[in-house]
Design brief:
The chain is α/β, with parallel strands linked by helices. About 35% of the residues lie in helices and about 20% in strands. It contains 14 helices and 15 strands. The protein has helices at about 65-80, 85-95, 100-120, 125-130, 145-160, 175-185, 205-210, 230-235, 250-260, 270, 275-285, 300-310, 325-330, 360-365; strands spanning about 5-25, 25-40, 45-50, 135, 140, 165-170, 190-195, 220, 240-245, 265, 290-295, 335, 345, 355-360, 365-375. The strands form four sheets. It has a seven-stranded parallel sheet. The longest helix has 19 residues, at about 65-80. The structure holds 2-succinylbenzoate (OSB) and magnesium ion (MG). 2-succinylbenzoate binds next to loops.
Length: about 375
């Protein structure tokens, strides 16, 4: 693998307004504050990454502000001190005595992967070992005002071709809401729920009541950092548990398997420290018969490019949260925008790097702060 000699890193914060507010059990977002990372090699080649941390620590402890701080204070200085580096080695470099801050680490690491693909003249998907030419797409629908409102959204998603419908739930907006979705979307399409840690073991009857809906899975019902109680719950639930928040590194994926805390993993590269850790989790799950799918964090077209590349790997056997650009943005920052056909997003296997061009002038226009680092 190519060794990269990094000369310049630029951090940018852009603001992108979602077409509609997105509500999960722990909070709501309308204006995304997104940190972009641009890395330039000695050769002049450039790679882009996106840090998926949100404005508030309601999903994991990180925020865009903690990530910015981690990048400027610890991670970029460490990268510059290390000299020429390969993408596979970046997370190891970062993890030595710098705990956590996975989304900050991932933003930089993923930009370096994109840079490596650019430098090698290969598609990022190919560089990662992707084998698909298109990836199946699911929609993630935020918590709605009423079961009817949710059912309408689900019905519309099915008509648009989505291959999976994920509904955000919390106690009080669960069973009746999901029943409405089942009725409006029909029996053929896979439906699942994502609780973002809104339940405890006290709610076990409420969760068992969902078993009869035949959901594909229920995502992260219990605490964001828990494995033990999820194992308790899985024993008493027919619906497979899929872990999201709890899987922060390959070791936690192994723990989930060993403890029986869940049967499916949602891999988000930002949450696990980047693409190298994502590959490790993917490989472990493949060896142990655990299906995985690629999660989303309301990314711009840059983060989406990384997710599409990752989801093209063979054990991503379930549809990912990889909606086309227009689902979230009036105007995306890449061209061409990401589109979906028949429920699939095409993998740009024949284009070197990310497979999309960053619209620099639009990025400049959306920028609220920027900081440049020269080596
Ligand atoms: O739990 O998967 C989640 C968005 C923000 C925070 C957490 C989650 C989500 C999503 C978005 O579900 C899915 C997408 O990007 O399409
Ligand atoms: Mg989730």
């Amino acid at each position: 693998m190519t060794v990269l000699d990094i000369k310049r890193i630029t951090l940018r914060e852009i603001h992108l307004r979602l077409r509609e507010p997105f509500r999960i059990s722990s909070g709501v977002v309308q204006d995304r504050r997104i940190m972009l990372i641009e890395i330039e090699e000695k050769s002049g080649a450039v790679g882009w990454g996106e840090c998926v941390a949100g404005e508030f620590p309601n999903y994991t402890p990180e925020t865009i502000d903690t990530a910015w701080f981690a990048c400027t204070q610890w991670l970029i200085p460490r990268l510059f001190a290390a000299g020429p580096i390969q993408p596979e080695a970046v997370l190891g470099l970062f993890d030595a005595d710098i705990r956590g801050h996975n989304m900050a680490k991932a933003g930089l690491e993923m930009a370096i992967w994109a840079l490596a693909a650019e430098q090698d003249g290969v598609a990022l998907a190919r560089l990662l070992g992707g084998t698909r030419s298109k990836v199946a797409t699911g929609i993630s629908i935020g918590i709605q005002r009423s079961p009817q409102a949710l059912a309408e959204k689900a019905q519309q998603a099915r008509a648009e071709g989505y291959r999976k419908i994920k509904c955000k739930i919390k106690p009080g907006t669960d069973l009746v809401f999901l029943e409405a979705v089942r009725h409006s979307a029909g029996e053929e399409i896979g439906i699942m729920a994502d609780a973002n840690s809104a339940y405890t073991l006290e709610n076990i009857a409420q969760l068992q009541a969902l078993d009869d809906l035949g959901l594909m899975m229920i995502e992260q019902p219990l605490a964001w950092d828990d494995l033990r109680e999820h194992a308790e719950l899985q024993k008493q639930l027919r619906t497979p548990i899929c872990l999201d928040e709890s899987i922060t590194c390959p070791e936690r994926a192994r723990d989930m398997h060993m403890m029986g805390s869940g049967r499916i993993i949602n891999i988000k590269p930002g949450r696990v420290g980047g693409l190298y850790a994502s590959l490790q989790i993917h490989n472990y799950c493949r060896e142990h018969g655990i299906p995985v799918w690629c999660g989303g964090m309301l990314e711009s077209g840059i983060g989406r490019a990384h997710n599409v590349a990752l989801a093209s790997l063979p054990n991503f056997t379930l549809p990912g949260d990889i909606s086309p650009s227009a689902r979230y943005w009036a105007e995306d920052i890449v061209e061409p925008e990401w589109t979906m056909e028949n429920g699939f997003v095409a993998v740009p296997n024949d284009i070197p790097g990310l497979g999309v061009k960053v619209r620099r002038s639009l990025v400049e226009k959306l920028t609220h702060r920027a900081e440049e680092f020269l080596r």
